[in-house]
Amino acid sequence: MTRKSIEEQIKIKAEKNKGIAKHMVSTQSLVEEQILKAQKAGKFDNLEGMGEPLNLEENPFEPDEVRMVFRILKRNNYAPYWIELGNDIDADIEKFWQEVEKFEKYTRLFFSGKNNRISIKRFENKQNRFLEERKAILQNINKKITDFNLHCPAFHLTRHNLNVINEMEKVRNRIKP
């Protein structure tokens, strides 16, 4: 198959699909038009339950086989493992950046005064330990994210692992003297 014949086939298919696209747009506008007419005619007035809060106790998308389990968990203030794990991940990330902020303040305070060689060496050792600990924490958070993704029932709710190298670079930039 030559490049020209492929381009011709693409053009032919595009021409055929134009009609479908026009039909879809016209169908959508037709439906919207019907809804607007019904609103103006007052057909949505006085509907059953109008003005009352929605009952969101039951999830209509929840599989029947787990509905009872989730109801029991909810009544006892528990959440599915993956949700609890997601909350832990969020808390770990927040705590991580709070600790970075504390060390950043410590760095500014340390260098606001005069320091001798010994105290500077001590600071450098403390900074290196701090960076090693932060790296280990990020790696641990990534393990939790992997666990979360394995237990999460929906792909679109999964999380990306943290890029440890990039995150550590951000930390280094924040705690520079």
Q: How is this fold's topology laid out?
A:
Blueprint: H1 3-40, H2 64-75, H3 81-111, H4 117-151, H5 164-174
What's the count of strands? 0
Structural class: mainly alpha
Strand content: under 5%
Largest sheet: none
Task: List low-pLDDT spans.
Answer: none
The share of residues in helices is over 70%
Radius of gyration: 29 Å
Number of domains: 2
- Large-scale geometry: extended
Question: Roughly how many Å apart are the termini?
Answer: 63 Å
List the helices and strands in order. HHHHH
Helix tally equals 5
Overall mean pLDDT: 86
Summarize the structure in words.
- This protein is 72% helix and 0% strand.
- It is mostly helical and 177 residues long.
- It folds into two domains: 1-43; 81-174.
- The chain is extended and about 80 Å long.
- The mean pLDDT is 86.
In short:
With 177 residues, the chain is mainly α.
